[in-house]
Amino acid sequence: MKKDIHPKYYSEAKIICACGNIISTGSTKPEIKVEVCSACHPFYTGKKRLVDTAGQLDRFKKRFEKSSKMKAEIEKKKAKDKAKKKPKTKLIIKKKVSKKKTKKTTEK
Questions:
Q1: Sheet architecture: strand order including 10-17
Q2: Which of 13, 25, 37, 56 could disulfide-link to 17, CB 3.0 to 4.6 Å?
Q3: pLDDT band (50, 70, 90) for residue 98
């Protein structure tokens, strides 16, 4: 291995779960915090329960609100830019010139 290019390795890093479970492992970070681990995840425990769906829904709603606000701001800017610009349309009126054929009558 080359020297001075690799991050520091912690052989006794701790993974701390929201349920209180602490797991010891090796990592480049000394402490990692997680919301779900194998001790509390429904798949591993066999218990049917919702895992922080309210928190996920709240986070999604916040992101959705931000994106809708940004879209509204962009639309306002576009409307202002349109109002500032002069319309480039010109009315071109073409007159139809009709050539009427006149009958010449000759008297005898």
A1: 22-27, 10-17, 31-34
A2: 37
A3: low
